[in-house]
Structures are given as C-alpha cells and as structure tokens.
Amino acid sequence: MKRTSFKVEGLKELSDQLKALDTKVIKKALRSAAKKAMEPVRDRAISNVGKDGGGLRDSIKLRAGSSAGKSRSRVAWAYVSAGGNLKKGLEGKAPGSYVLSEHYGTKHRAGNPFLENAFTPHAQSILQGFAAELKSETAKGLKTMKPRKGSKR
Question: Are 138 and 69 in contact (CB under 8 A)?
Fold first, then answer.
C-alpha cells in the first residue's frame, strides 16, 4: 500500500481557539466537523461500488465520535465502513458480506477498491473541509458558550 503525506496549515490558530472552549463545545465541534468532512467520502463510496442489488451499497455507513474522558487532548474520528453487521438478509446472505472480494477482487475478476478510491485521491480536500468546518463549529461554540469566570469577553 502506498503512503501519502499531507500538509495542513493554520493549526496553531485553531489550537489557540480550541483552548478557549469548554470540553463539551470542543467535543461537539470536533465530532461534527469530522462527520461533515467525511460525508463526501461516503457519497463517493456509494457511487463507486459495483452494482450488486443494493446490499453492499446499502451497507456503506458513516460514523463519527470523539474520545472519551475529560482530557483537553480530544481526538475526533469519523469513518466510512461497508459490510454491515453481517446479519442474513432475505436471500439468506449477509448484505455486503462480499465487501473484500469487491474491494480486492477474486481470481475471476479484478478488484474495485471503492473505499480507497473514495478517500485517498481526495484526502487533501477532506482535510481542508475538516479545517473549515472545525473553524465554523468552534466559532458557533464560542458564541453559545457561557463566559468563564474571570474572562474578559
């Protein structure tokens, strides 16, 4: 698998802005920004997956969250997955159970790395979208947050 590197600018200013926020506001802003940044990935994965009667396509989901605990060093995550929970459907086969053979291929047909193709070529724009959305969400959070004691806002 090839490695890809990215450069993101403006994180120092963003870090300063995040330090002024309450942990609840940070958690919400990070989770929301991560989810919104990954929505185009989900949409591209759905449009790139092969025609299969809809089982695999319907199993593509976007999930987002943030780290637990009260630490100021929050980690937000968002991911797009395919394959579902592997419960059997009407045909007796789990919807999306062949996600690996679709992605990597078999000896009979070439693979279609739909998840990788939905993310890797667009990683820089995803990061830019995340930064822009996080800036917007933190600005909203600053407006709604109660001023801290001793704060000069």
Answer: no
